[in-house]
Amino acid sequence: MKKHLGIILIGVIIVSVLIMYMITFQVRQQEKALVMTFGKITDQVDEPGLQWIMPWQKVVKFDTRIRTLIKEEVQTITQDEKSVVVQIYVNWRINDPQAFYKSFRQPGQNDAQDVIDAAKRIMSRTWIAEATNTITEYNFSDLVTDDSDKFKLGILEKGTAEQPGGMLGRIRNKVEADGADYGIEFVDLGISRLQVPSSVTESVFNRMMADRGREVRISMAEGASEASKIEGEAKSNATINLAKAQATAKATMGAGDAEAAKYYSTFLEHPELAGFLRQLETLRETLSGRTTIVLDVNTPAYKLLFTGPTANGATKENK
What is the rounded average pLDDT of the residues 249-253? Predict the structure, then answer.
């Protein structure tokens, strides 16, 4: 009996857990829930905690935190007819789950994720596409510039405090113009990517390469011209300096020859003095170092070492 009692107790516990699972559900802090009865909304739960339902009811829960929708890249043109590729992101959230569910639920789709996916497709195809058209009201130089005073990307995205609007305002106005409550709030909008098409980029690169090639050729021509000019000036200066040097050398040689002529005339008048000086020069050259020489005492020039000079420049005989 005790054995059967334990089995019965376990069964009761399992059945109780299953029943509790079927008649209760948990709502988190960031969630709101819709209670569905035979496919129709019969209640909305906004408070977090444990909630009760009937076994035949179903719960659809939505996370009300901010979501980000990034639209695929699209190509458009600016006011000055420049092609650009733009990618837009939108931060949004569900603020009324019941209105959101009714607005975007598709036939045969009852799950929360199915409704959210349908909402993303509709937002991307209609409202965000409408906001993208705002780019046609701005010039390319308003969106891509290094002048902060002319930069209008922020105004394009959200407008200004004095003039609210931009893409974000365009979306909000479009939703209001539809006259329906979609249960969503657009919190923020921005451009995550802005670039020119690849075909335009290639054309720009080719033009830049052609411009740079032309600048290189001009620079090379100017360099060659400057080099020729410098080379010509250098040759001219070299010719002038060489002529000056040759003139100076000739003048120096002439002065030297004139000075030498004076000495030559003196030597012609006194040949014995010339001979005597020549002998002294010979002695100076040969005996300037530690030199040992064995010569005849009558050897010219060296006889001076024994006889000394005479009054008339001749040497005395060694006795």
Answer: 87
